[in-house]
Amino acid sequence: MEQEQIRLLVCGCNGAMGKAVVSGAETMDGVSVVAGFDQQPSSNSKYPVYNKLNEIQEQIDAVIDFSHRSVAKAIAEFCYEKKIPLVSATTGIDENTEAYYHKISDAIPVFRSKNFSYGISVMKKLVQEAARLLAEDFDIELIEAHHNKKADAPSGTAQMLLESVQQGAGHGYDICYGRHGNQTVRKQNELTVHAVRGGTIVGEHSVIFAGEDEIITISHSALSKKVFAMGALKAMKFLVTKENGFYSMDDIASIG
Predict the structure, then answer these.
(1) Which of the following is catalytic: 82, 147, 150, 237?
(2) 170 pLDDT higher than 60
(3) pTM of the prediction?
(4) Of 70, 141, 156, 256, which is least packed with CB atoms within 10 Å of its CB?
């Protein structure tokens, strides 16, 4: 779709990430936030904010969803019905909704990622290659850390990195979540995921490859929410030029 101005609906617009998306959109040429959707509408916005999707009257060219998992499918259904390209960034989504994204991508362009950092996209590729080379002789652990208001654990990004490890290793692992007690000697084919929650940590992820007398760690730290907001906006501008289909950060990472 070629046009001068992309009319954007931001779902979860009153949340921290939604506000970051709106702020980022204001710095971009060719993008205008024309409406918002949130469970707690605000009268202070420069655009109308709705708490019911069926009340939205504005013409919409794209949707960025940073809302809550409880409304994610309803937003996807709205996009499907209106034939609007959807960028989904909501975490903690169930398998049914994830499957629905794939289903509707036959009719609309859908961009789905659990992390919109370009750096994380690169990290996934590095982790996969490291696992390919090291998995046979190295123990692998994954640590993720987020702010004290994050509800889901482990993070969606941690799950993405875990998938990259298993793809690189060429096999699955017996996944443990945390470790405690008196019988915690590491078992063969075990991989443990640790989740830290505290303060205002934006997002930190590390994959540790521990071998005999040597350790390799691949890490990523997000220093602000801006990196995710700008990534989602970049994904949106990418998506509105594409045919119907399912897209992810791998598609952006592959084109630079």
Answers:
(1) 150
(2) yes
(3) 0.81
(4) 256
Q: Indicate the helix (H) or strand (E) that contains 222.
A: strand 214-222
Q: How far is the C-alpha of 14 from the C-alpha of 9, rounded, in Å?
A: 12
Half-sphere exposure of 104 (CA within 13 A, CB side): 26
The first and second tokens of residue 39, run together, are: 């469970």
The predicted structure's pLDDT at residue 57: 92
What 3-state DSSP class applies to 24? Answer: helix
Note if 19 is an active site residue: no
| pLDDT for 63 | 98
What is the strand order of the sheet 139-146 is part of? 174-177, 190-197, 139-146, 203-211, 214-222
Q: Which amino acid makes up residue 131?
A: A
Q: Does position 71 have pLDDT exceeding 90, yes or no?
A: yes
3-class SS of residue 27: coil
Can you tell me whether residue 34 is helix, strand or coil? strand
d(CA 67, CA 121): 22
Do 178 and 227 form a contact (C-beta atoms < 8 A)? Answer: no
CA distance 241 to 249: 15
CA–CA distance, 161 with 106 (Å, rounded to integer)? 27
**Cβ-proximal residues to 44 (8 Å cutoff; 6+ apart), any chain:** none
Q: Is 171 designated active site?
A: no
Residue whose C-alpha is closest to residue 17's, from 233, 256, 247? 233
Token pair of 205 as six digits? 């992820």
Q: Classify the phi-psi angles of 75: left when phi > 0, otherwise alpha if psi is within -120 to 50, otherwise beta.
A: alpha
Catalytic residue among 19, 146, 220, 225: 146
